C-alpha cells in the first residue's frame, strides 16, 4: 500500500492507503474524498479531476503526456489530472492539493 | 399523432444470448410516454427495467441506463467502438471527426483543440455570449410572451459559432436559417441539404484561413499539428461541421428544458433573481436533470457486461439522460440538489466526453443570468403546452411562455 495525502481547499487532510496501480483519481473517488468530479471517468477528456502536487513531489511523478497537457489550463507543471497519475511505491507519503472547484 | 410506436417500428427476434429478464420493449424515438414527457420517461426506466436491458426495436439493441455500466462501456473504446452504422443500421456510417474514431486516431484529432474548450479557453467568450443573449431577450421582453425555442434559444449557438470560428457576419442570417432547417425540418432530405449548404459556407472560411490564418478556431485547425501532420482541407471542414452541429441542438434544448423547469417552479425563479450567485450550481443540476444527447457503441468481440453475455457486434444505446437518474449512482436522483457531489453524465464519459461542455455551461449560465434579470415571473402558456421529440436527442418541439 502507498499512502497518499489529499488536502482539501479548506485545509482538511485525508490520508488514504492505495494499492500500486490505482490512479490518484480512483483513490479519491473510491474513498469518498470530495473535490474530484472525474466526470469522464478517467479518460483525460474533461479536466474535472485536477490536483496540485506538493512542490517536493512534482519530480517524483512521470511528466504529463500530450492529451493531459491539452486539457490542463495551467503552464504550472504541478497541476495535473489525477486520473493520469498511477500510484507507484515511491509515491509513499505524497501530498496532493485539491482545488476549490473543478468546473 | 395518429400512429402508435408499435405501428412505426417492428420487433426483432430476441437473440439466444440475451436473458429474457433483460428484455424490455423501449422505442427510443416514438415511445408514447417519451413524447409525452421525456425526462419522466427516463426516470421510469429505472423502475421498470434493469440498468442494462435489451430492446427489440430497430433491429435489436442494448440500452444502458446505469452509471457504472455507462462508465464500463464509454471508457473502453477498444471493446466498445464508436465505429458503428447506428441504430437502426444505416447503409454506411457518415464519418465525423472526431466522433466516429477510436483512440489513438481519436486522440490525435482531439488533443490539439482541447485547449480552446477548457474553462479558461472559453472564458473570453463570456462578453459576446452576454451581448447576444441580451439582444435576443430584449427583442421579446416587451411583448409578454414568446415561443422560446424559435424566438430566443435557436439563434444563440449559431451566432456564437460565427464568433468562435471567425466567420464573416454578413452570412449570419442565412446561416441561422440553415441551422434551423438542419435540426428542425421535418423532412430528412431538407435537413441533409441544409447541412451541405452549411458546409459550403464554412468552406469559404476554411479556404480563406488556409490562405491566411488569423486568431480563430478555423485558423487553429489549419495551423496546428494533429498527430504529426496537418489536417487536410476536407478534414478541417468535416471537423468544423461537427463542432457546429454538436453545439447546436444540444444547447438549444438544454436552454429549453431549463426554461420549462423554471416556468414550472416560480419559487426557484424568485430565488435566483434574488441571488444570482446560485445560478451556476442550479444550472449544473438543470444539465443533470435534463440530459439531451445519447451515444451509440458497438461491441468489437464477445464479452460480459453487468454479468450478462455480450456478443460481437451487439449494438449499445447509451441512454445518457436516463443515467442521470440512476438511483445507485445519485442520492435522491430525482431531486434538484445544487452542489451535489456526484458528477453528471450529460456529456458522457470516456474519451469522447463532450469537448463543448465548458462552452455549454457558459452559455447556460450567462443566458439565464440575463433572462432572469430581464423577464419577470414567467409561466407556461396553458393554451399551448410544450411538445417534444425523442431520438438521439431528447428535444423540445415548441415551448410557449407568457409573463406579465
Ligand atoms: C448541453 C449541451 C451539450 C450536450 C448535452 C452535449 C452532449 C454530448 C455528448 C453526450 C457527447 C458524447 C458523444 C459520444 O460519446 O459518442 C458529445 C460529444 C461532442 N460534443 Fe457535445 N454536447 C453539448 C454541447 C456541445 C457544444 C457547445 C459543442 C461545441 C463545441 C459540442 C461539440 C461536441 C463534439 C465535437 C463532440 C465529439 C467529441 C469527441 O468525439 O471526442 N457539444 N456531446
From TrEMBL, chain A:
Q: Does the keyword Metal-binding apply?
A: yes
Cofactor(s) demanded: [2Fe-2S] cluster
Q: Which UniProt keywords apply?
A: 2Fe-2S, Iron, Iron-sulfur, Metal-binding
- Pfam families tied to this protein: Fer2 (PF00111)
Going by the entry's taxonomy, the superkingdom of the source organism is recorded as: Bacteria
Q: Which InterPro entries does the record associate with it?
A: 2Fe-2S_ferredoxin-like_sf, 2Fe-2S_ferredoxin-type, Adrenodoxin-like, Beta-grasp_dom_sf
Q: Which residues form the 2Fe-2S ferredoxin-type domain?
A: 2-102
Under the heading PANTHER family, the entry gives: FERREDOXIN-2, MITOCHONDRIAL, FERREDOXIN/ADRENODOXIN
Give the UniProt family note: Belongs to the adrenodoxin/putidaredoxin family.
User: What's the name of the protein?
Assistant: 2Fe-2S ferredoxin
UniProtKB/TrEMBL annotation, chain B:
For this chain, the family text in UniProt reads: Belongs to the cytochrome P450 family.
- Tell me what this protein is called: Cytochrome P450
Which keywords does UniProt give here? Answer: Heme, Iron, Metal-binding, Monooxygenase, Oxidoreductase
Q: Which InterPro entries does this UniProt record tie to the protein?
A: Cyt_P450 (IPR001128), Cyt_P450_B (IPR002397), Cyt_P450_CS (IPR017972), Cyt_P450_sf (IPR036396)
Tell me which species this is from: Acidocella aquatica
Keyword Amino-acid biosynthesis annotated: no
Gene3D superfamilies given in the database record: Cytochrome P450
Cross-referenced Pfam families? p450
Superkingdom as given in the UniProt entry: Bacteria
Amino acid at each position: 500500500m502507498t499512502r497518499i495525502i489529499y488536502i482539501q481547499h479548506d485545509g482538511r487532510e485525508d490520508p488514504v492507503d492505495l494499492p500500486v496501480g490505482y490512479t490518484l483519481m480512483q483513490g479519491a473517488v473510491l474513498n469518498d474524498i470530495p473535490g474530484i468530479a472525474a466526470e469522464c471517468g478517467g479518460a483525460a477528456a474533461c479536466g474535472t479531476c485536477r490536483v496540485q502536487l506538493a512542490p517536493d513531489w512534482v519530480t517524483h511523478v512521470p511528466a504529463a503526456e500530450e492529451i493531459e497537457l491539452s486539457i490542463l489550463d495551467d503552464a504550472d507543471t504541478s497541476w495535473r489530472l489525477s486520473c493520469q497519475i498511477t500510484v507507484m511505491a515511491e509515491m509513499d507519503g505524497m501530498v496532493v492539493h485539491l482545488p476549490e472547484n473543478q468546473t | 399523432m395518429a400512429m402508435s410506436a408499435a405501428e412505426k417500428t417492428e420487433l426483432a427476434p430476441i437473440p439466444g444470448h440475451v436473458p429474457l429478464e433483460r428484455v424490455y420493449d423501449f422505442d427510443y424515438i416514438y415511445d408514447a410516454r417519451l413524447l409525452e414527457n421525456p425526462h419522466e420517461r427516463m426516470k421510469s426506466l429505472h423502475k421498470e427495467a434493469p440498468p442494462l436491458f435489451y430492446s427489440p426495436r430497430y433491429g435489436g439493441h442494448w440500452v444502458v441506463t446505469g452509471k457504472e455500466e455507462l462508465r464500463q462501456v464509454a471508457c473502453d473504446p477498444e471493446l466498445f467502438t464508436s465505429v458503428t452504422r447506428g441504430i437502426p443500421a444505416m447503409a454506411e456510417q457518415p464519418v465525423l471527426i472526431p466522433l466516429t474514431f477510436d483512440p489513438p486516431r481519436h486522440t490525435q484529432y482531439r488533443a490539439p483543440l482541447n485547449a480552446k474548450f477548457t474553462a479558461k479557453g472559453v472564458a473570453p467568450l463570456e462578453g459576446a455570449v452576454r451581448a447576444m443573449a441580451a439582444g435576443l431577450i430584449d427583442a421579446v421582453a416587451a411583448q409578454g410572451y414568446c415561443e422560446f425555442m424559435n424566438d430566443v434559444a435557436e439563434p444563440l449557438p449559431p451566432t456564437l459559432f460565427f464568433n468562435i470560428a471567425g466567420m464573416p457576419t454578413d452570412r449570419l442570417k442565412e446561416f441561422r436559417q440553415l441551422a434551423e432547417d438542419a435540426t428542425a425540418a421535418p423532412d430528412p432530405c431538407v435537413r441533409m441539404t441544409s447541412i451541405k449548404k452549411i458546409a459550403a459556407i464554412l468552406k469559404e472560411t476554411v479556404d480563406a484561413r488556409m490562405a491566411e490564418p488569423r486568431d480563430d478556431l478555423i485558423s487553429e485547425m489549419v495551423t496546428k499539428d494533429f498527430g504529426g501532420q496537418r489536417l487536410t482541407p476536407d478534414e478541417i471542414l468535416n471537423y468544423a461541421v461537427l463542432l457546429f452541429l454538436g453545439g447546436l441542438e444540444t444547447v438549444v434544448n438544454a436552454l429549453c428544458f431549463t426554461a420549462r423547469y423554471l416556468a414550472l417552479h416560480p419559487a426557484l425563479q424568485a430565488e435566483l433573481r434574488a441571488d444570482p450567485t446560485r445560478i451556476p450550481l442550479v444550472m449544473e443540476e438543470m444539465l443533470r436533470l435534463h440530459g439531451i444527447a445519447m451515444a451509440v457503441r458497438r461491441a468489437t468481440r464477445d464479452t460480459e457486461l453487468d454479468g450478462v453475455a455480450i456478443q460481437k457486434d451487439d449494438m449499445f444505446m447509451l441512454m445518457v439522460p436516463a443515467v442521470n437518474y440512476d438511483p445507485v449512482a445519485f442520492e435522491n436522483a430525482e431531486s434538484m440538489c445544487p452542489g451535489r457531489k456526484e458528477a453528471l453524465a450529460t456529456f458522457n464519459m470516456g474519451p469522447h466526453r463532450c469537448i463543448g461542455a465548458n462552452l455549454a455551461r457558459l452559455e447556460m449560465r450567462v443566458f439565464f443570468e440575463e433572462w432572469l434579470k430581464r423577464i419577470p415571473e414567467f409561466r407556461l402558456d396553458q393554451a399551448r403546452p410544450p411538445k417534444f421529440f425523442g431520438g438521439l436527442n431528447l428535444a423540445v418541439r415548441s415551448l410557449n411562455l407568457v409573463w406579465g
